[in-house]
Amino acid sequence: MIFSTQRYAYLCEAVLSTKRAQELNFVKGETDVKTFPDGERYQRVLSEVDGQEVVLIGGTISDADTLELYDLACTMVSLGAASLLLVIPYFGYSTMERAVKHGEVVTAKTRAYLLSSIPTTAMGNRVILLDLHTEGLPYYFEGKIRPIHLYGKSLVAQACRELVGEDDWNQRRFVLASTDAGRAKWVESLANDMGVQVAFVFKRRIDGSHTEVTSISREVGGQYVIIYDDMIRTGGSLVGAAKAYQQAGASRIASVTTHGLFTNEGLARIRNSGLFTCVISTDSHPNAVENLRQHPDGFLRVKSIADLLVSKLGEI
To answer: Quick one: DSSP state of residue 183?
Structure first.
């Protein structure tokens, strides 16, 4: 039985519409959620979950969404769910995954602690996390909940294939690039899987909010450069990297991301830079879906993670 928080209802529908979900006899769970005038939220689980294996889809995209996920999960366990599997397509708070200054709150860790405190079902609790910004985040979960880090490499490869076309894909005539050296290891792993060259930029920090590109790791002159970043927020780092690749002679530049947040007019910033032919994002974050709805001109393409999720759910 599959449930979702309000903002992930679109992904729940996408999962249920897959052929594999229908073969596995997945059933949609129903909830009632509304808000009182004072802002307090009312929630009720309408479907009978006693003895059911329950999947709950919801991201920690805000404090309110995190608490909605937590409250529903706790209630489902108290109603007798046999097992609980949380699907968190986007785990927020990754900016605060470690403390730099004394006394800083490591929010990613405290949110993992919160979700770890959900009462345990008879068959145990699990959580699926997709393309985490920091590899160590699963270790923040504790107790009896079991984290599963799901990688979206196949989705990135499919997006690259769509961007370059069959001929250039077969000949591997493109370069997979990253926004900075900090993400180079992950991008290099992707590039090795696809059998293509990898490039990344070196940066020097000027002050607290500005950096400058000092060099690029390889020659990209005349090449189609596809920049992969696990998460695009304001688009500032992405645009800065694209400028460096363009100045180095890249013939075309596109971008692929797992988590398209596009905050603070991020998509407009990328579009208005004039550097990109296209941006492809998954639907792991509701903002990507909303931006596509508002700007259906083809510059942004959104690919669903539904098949990837259902494939994993079928395994476990």
So the answer is: G
Q: How far apart are CA 196 and CA 190, in angstroms?
A: 9
pLDDT at 207: 54
DSSP string, 89-147: SS---GGGSS-SSTT---HHHHHHHHHHTSPPPTT-EEEEEES-SSTTGGGG--TT-EE
Name the residue ranges covered by the structural domains of the chain. Answer: 2-150, 153-304
Assess contact for 56 and 86: CB atoms under 8 A: yes
The answer to whether the predicted template modeling score (pTM) of the entire model surpasses 0.85 is: yes
Contact yes or no for 68/5 (Cβ under 8 A): yes
Does domain 153-304 bear CATH number 3.40.50.2020?
yes
Dist. CA 316–CA 303, nearest whole Å: 23
Q: pLDDT at position 212, please?
A: 62
**CATH number 3.40.50.2300 given to 2-150:** no
Question: Which residues contact residue 49 at a Cβ distance below 8 angstroms, ignoring those fewer than 6 apart?
Answer: 1, 29, 76, 79, 80, 81
Q: State the Cα–Cα distance between residues 89 and 70, nearest whole angstrom.
A: 15
CA distances, 88 to each of 40, 127, 165 (Å)? 24, 7, 32
Q: Which residues contact 251 (CB under 8 A, 6 or more apart)?
A: 222, 223, 224
Q: Which two tokens stand for residue 207?
A: 């002050």
Q: What is the pLDDT of residues 57-104, one digit of tens each?
A: 998 999 999 999 999 999 999 999 999 999 999 998 877 888 889 999
- The contacts of residue 34 (CB under 8 Å, 6+ apart) are 41, 42
| Alpha-carbon span 25 to 140, nearest angstrom | 33
Domains 2-150 and 153-304 share a fold: yes
